[in-house]
Design a protein that fits this description.
Blueprint lengths: L7 E5 L3 H14 L3 E5 L5 H8 L3 E5 L7 H10 L8 E5 L6 H8 L3 E4 L7 H9 L2
Parallel strand pairs: 1-2, 1-3, 3-4, 4-5
């Protein structure tokens, strides 16, 4: 993911406030494109349709939880290597180890800071 280059991000989160905040953070501050879903039922097809570079994924959602969405992304050859970063308000002590074990690049805890969300993603995913 090169530094300073425009990225396409798929945001999957059931909270409309997170959608609004992440869009401001990533589109206005970083110049990235954000495509948003409220649940993960169409994560693979949306990722493919928009050719996204990264998925920001809520860990806890009512319909399909983030771990299931990540499993679906990893099960499809076309999205298997797509970087995924969990967004979560959960405070489990093993959260980062769980994300690593599931194949995510890392975890960003909510609430996140608008000005530094892009930097946090870059640190986790790399350039």
């Amino acid at each position: 993911m090169g530094g300073g280059l425009s990225k396409k991000v798929l945001l999957i989160d059931d909270d409309p406030d997170v959608h609004a905040t992440a869009k401001v953070a990533l589109e206005l501050v970083n110049g990235w494109s954000v495509f948003a879903l409220r649940d993960g039922t169409e994560a693979v097809s949306m990722a493919l349709a928009h050719g996204v570079d990264l998925v920001l994924l809520d860990m806890l959602m009512p319909k399909v939880d983030g771990t299931d969405v990540l499993a679906a992304l990893r099960a499809d050859d076309r999205t298997r290597d797509l970087p995924v970063v969990f967004l979560t308000a959960a405070t489990r002590p093993d959260l980062h180890a769980l994300a690593d074990r599931l194949g995510a690049q890392g975890v960003i805890e909510k609430p996140f800071h608008v000005k530094t969300l892009g930097e946090a993603i870059e640190r986790l995913v790399g350039s």
